[in-house]
Amino acid sequence: MAVTDAAIDKIKQMITSGELAPGDRLPKEADLAERLGLSRNSLREAVRALALINVLDVRQGDGTYVTSLQPHLLLEAMSFVVDFHRDDTVLQFLEVRRVLEPAATAMAAMNMPDEDVKELRAILDALPADPSVEELVANDLRFHQHIAAGSGNPVLCSLIDSLSGPTTRARVWRGLTQEGALDDTREQHVMICDAIAARRPEVARAWATVHVAGVEEWLRRTL
């Protein structure tokens, strides 16, 4: 194991064991390096790497702290990485969406507060009668992000949000080239919203599956 990797692993163990909790400040560099049997250079490299993935927060003039370790922070790195996808892998991202989003939609039908259901309806109503493709896609992203948040599961919400980027281009492409894409999107969004408002999780799951699968099947035929 490389020296820096070993240093990362030792700091990780301190966090996972509970020795360092979210919000805790790390000991001074010299003390921590001696305690872990590391050179100060190796420790600095490990801290730098863990800061890049939002495990540690380096505050100039103050010290280094463990972050909140909330899912949205830790999954930001994944969101960055998936943006490097190639066009021929977008179907794989859509397949993952087809697994995750219907589950989140069913959970939203059970867990989303009434006020948030009203806001979901307002997102639908905010779409102009004759929107541009950009307006349609932006509205679509807001709609699905709101549902994911309404699932009540921050990890699931963060996963869905981090995976949404690679499929945005496919949504734009579909909006530009497929006849009836706007009407289909509107209808399916309304049915999803109605099912959530009626607290019918399996109906919500079914419509979400139809919605994501529609984009996936269109892309399969197009490619």
From TrEMBL:
It comes from the Bacteria. The lineage of its organism: Bacteria, Bacillati, Actinomycetota, Actinomycetes, Streptosporangiales. Keywords: DNA-binding, Transcription, Transcription regulation. Pfam families: FCD (PF07729), GntR (PF00392). InterPro entries: GntR_C, TF_FadR/GntR_C, Tscrpt_reg_HTH_GntR, WH-like_DNA-bd_sf, WH_DNA-bd_sf. PROSITE patterns: HTH_GNTR. Residues 1-69 form the HTH gntR-type domain. This is GntR family transcriptional regulator.
